[in-house]
Amino acid sequence: MRIVKRAATIAALLAATLPNAGQAQTRDAAAIDAAVKAAMARTGAKGLAIATIEDGKPVVVRSFGARNAAGASLDTDTVMYGASLTKAVFAYTVMQLVDEGKIDLDKPIADMLPKPLPDYGNLEAYGNWGDLAGDPRWRKITPRMVLTHSTGFANFAFLEPDEKLRIHFEPGSRYAYSGEGILLLQFAIEKGLDLDLGAEMQRRVFDRFGMTNTSMKWRADFARNLADGWTAEGKVEPHDERSRVRAAGSMDTTIADMARFAAGLARGDGLSAKARREMVRGQLPITTSSQFPTLQPDLPRPPGRRGSRLDWE
Questions:
Q1: pLDDT per residue over 256-291, tens digit each?
Q2: Across residues 102-128, what is the average pLDDT?
Q3: For 153-202, how does the pLDDT look when each residue is reduced to its tens digit (9 = 90+)?
Q4: Are 94 and 103 in contact (CB under 8 A)?
Q5: What is the dihedral sign for C-alpha 285, 290, 291, 294?
Q6: What is the 3-state secondary structure (H, E, C) of the chain?
Q7: pLDDT of 196-251, one tens digit each?
Q8: pLDDT of residue 18
Q9: Please, what is the end-to-end C-alpha distance for the chain in angstroms?
Q10: Angle 255-267/85-99 helices, nearest 10 degrees?
């Protein structure tokens, strides 16, 4: 995970689904301390939290630095903005629904909805679906395309020059990171399956793993031990108190809670063997030089090699 200039950054590292993987490194506190201090100095991060997972168990859960401009200590139970770590928790939730037969990864999302997607218009809580009225390719988008970031959407429509949602390439044909796509699947779950996503994630994930300081919406009790943000310019950025569930990134969490989730995910708790295999196997080659900005052109492909040699899981 790239470390950014924030008062608190979570780095949840799944080191050990294999016996003894990374054992020496993760148990060497001095090495961890040195690596963290170097990373914080290099990036200007004010605080950092890290967890390592071995054999499906948290081995190291540590925090470093400050959580706010006053210099209050960043603790392992300090609440931080989970940002796009939310997507991993959402994907885990979706795979439970797949196991239960409520979602088919390869069935078009259009078939989950009671009416055509563009007919819902532009909804502030979800997306500008009405913008897709002139492009029938929306009918091809599946949950798998959403979870592999291959819908064809930009990351978010508001990043487009005209702030309109559009499909940039044939859905499923290539990788391009998109929070907008994640919101589309959330919309289908809530409007098509009539499920409350926040309640489902609470029951299926946070309650399951004892993640008592994690929520998809702001909770007033988080204020007692909260990490502020820090801009690239070195200014304090108050925590965004999210009032709406957003599968693309509204989660608040702690490093201790994320370690519990990462360990459970490594073990495959709550999923069939088939669903877990789907979550961890390479699904789609990443053919750009970096993840952001999204919608970059493909890299040249030398013989026997494609793009960055990375796959999205």
A1: 999 999 999 999 999 999 999 999 899 988 888 888
A2: 97
A3: 999 999 999 999 999 999 999 999 999 999 999 999 999 999 999 999 99
A4: yes
A5: negative
A6: CCCCCCCCEEEEEEEECCCCCCHHHHCCHHHHHHHHHHHHHHHCCCEEEEEEEECCEEEEEEEEEECCCCCCECCCCCEEECCCHHHHHHHHHHHHHHHCCCCCCCCCHHHHCCCCHHHHCECCCCCEHHHHCCCHHHHHCCHHHHHCCCCCCCCCHHHCCCCCCCCCCCCCCCCCCCHHHHHHHHHHHHHHCCCCHHHHHHHHHHCCCCCCCCECCCCHHHHHHECCEECCCCCEECCCCCCCCCCCCCCEECHHHHHHHHHHHHHCCCCCHHHHHHHHCCCEEECCCCCCCCCCCCCCCCCCCCCCCEEEC
A7: 999 999 999 999 999 999 999 999 999 999 999 888 788 888 899 999 999 999 99
A8: 31
A9: 15
A10: 40
Q: Which residue has the tokens 């603790």?
A: 75
